Structure formats: structure tokens, C-alpha cells
Amino acid sequence: MEVKVLNVSGKETGAKVQLSEEIFGIEPNDHAIYLDVKQFLANQRQGTHKSKQRNEIAGSTRKLYKQKGTGGARAGSIKSPLFNGGGRVFGPQPRDYSFKLNKKLKSLARKSALSYKAQDNSVVILEDFSFDTAKTKNFVTLLNALNFSGERTLVVLPTASDNVYLSSRNIQKTKVITADQLNTYDVLNAGKLVFTTGSVKTLEEALAK
């Protein structure tokens, strides 16, 4: 798949990039995408939820009233889950939600997501760029030049650039990452994918392994 290279002004440079069919042109595997996104979201969970059981509640353990003869149900402790302020039965406890996926499956999921974006013509290639200063105005100008203003945009750089990252940080629906941070969730969550010529090369080298 051949894509024209644009500059930061949104104009064609005359150069073209050949996107690898093994990465941007495969038959997408929906189940691999589902598993990878599920793992990504599960890994975001802190798992620190906690409720107290009856043995953790502060309170008296004396028997409230005699066992028989009251005409009501038996009760042994004020900490019973049946009473207001008592412990909770089978409440949430701290746990780790993360789970393991094979590297090949995660790679297949990323390739499938990228292939979907390529099919939708949502992949844009820019020549390598950087900003001299960290100004939001610089990034807004870039998005306007590409007609991506208001679009959910993911910009993928070959290496970290503080000025580019800081310039994009205050813009809604925009995220800047490096090629080695690319994941299936971010690809699918973006309306437009913006790669630089350098990040395409880095990505293809990583996924070709």
C-alpha cells in the first residue's frame, strides 16, 4: 500500500511511503483485537476496591438479646451483615485484574487494528518534524493544516519529543506516543492515525520480528 508523504503544512512533498502488507494489509482477526483490548483495559484497573467483612468491623461482640422468646429472629452480634453498619457479605476485595497474552497474539491484534485503519484510509504519513518550542499553537496549526481539527487523532513519533508532546497535551481528542508505545486500544480509539516516515520504519521493524 502506497501513501503520499505530507509536510507540516499539509502539502504533498512528492515522496511516497510503501506500507508493509504484512502489517497494514492483513485479514483482521477480530478475536485477537478483542483479547488485546480486554487485557489493556484490565491492566488499567487498580483493583484497590475493598469493603469490610464482619470480622473487620469495630463493634461489640455481645449477644444482643436472648436466643428464644422474643418472637424475632436470632441475632448473635451487632456486626452481622443483617444490621445497619454491619459487615458486608462477599464484598469486593483487592485483586489484580491483569492477565497474560502471548506476544504473537498481541502482535496480530496490532496488525489487525492497523489494517482496519488502512482500509478506512485513516492513515496519514508526515515527514519527520519537531517543534523549537513547546506551544499549543504549534500543534493546533498542524492539525488545522491536516484538516483534523476536532478529530480524535493519534500521532506516532519514532522517538520521544518533549516539545511535540507538551504542545499537544492541552488539546482534547489528541494523543502523542512513540512507535514502541503503540497499542491496539489507542489505534482503534483514534479516528485518524498520523505516522512520521521514521515512526513507520520503527514500527515495521518491531512488528516484523
Automatic annotation (TrEMBL):
Quaternary data: Part of the 50S ribosomal subunit.
NCBIfam families tied to this protein: rplD_bact
Region (Disordered) residue spans: 45-77
Species this chain originates from: Pedobacter cryophilus
Keyword field: Ribonucleoprotein, Ribosomal protein, RNA-binding, rRNA-binding
GO biological process: translation
Protein name: Large ribosomal subunit protein uL4
UniProt cross-references to InterPro entries, sorted A to Z: Ribosomal_uL4, Ribosomal_uL4-like, Ribosomal_uL4_dom_sf
Domain of life the protein comes from: Bacteria
Residues forming coiled coils: none
GO CC field: ribonucleoprotein complex; ribosome
Entry's family note: Belongs to the universal ribosomal protein uL4 family.
Lineage: Bacteria, Pseudomonadati, Bacteroidota, Sphingobacteriia, Sphingobacteriales
Function: Forms part of the polypeptide exit tunnel. One of the primary rRNA binding proteins, this protein initially binds near the 5'-end of the 23S rRNA. It is important during the early stages of 50S assembly. It makes multiple contacts with different domains of the 23S rRNA in the assembled 50S subunit and ribosome.
Name of the gene encoding the protein in the UniProt record: rplD
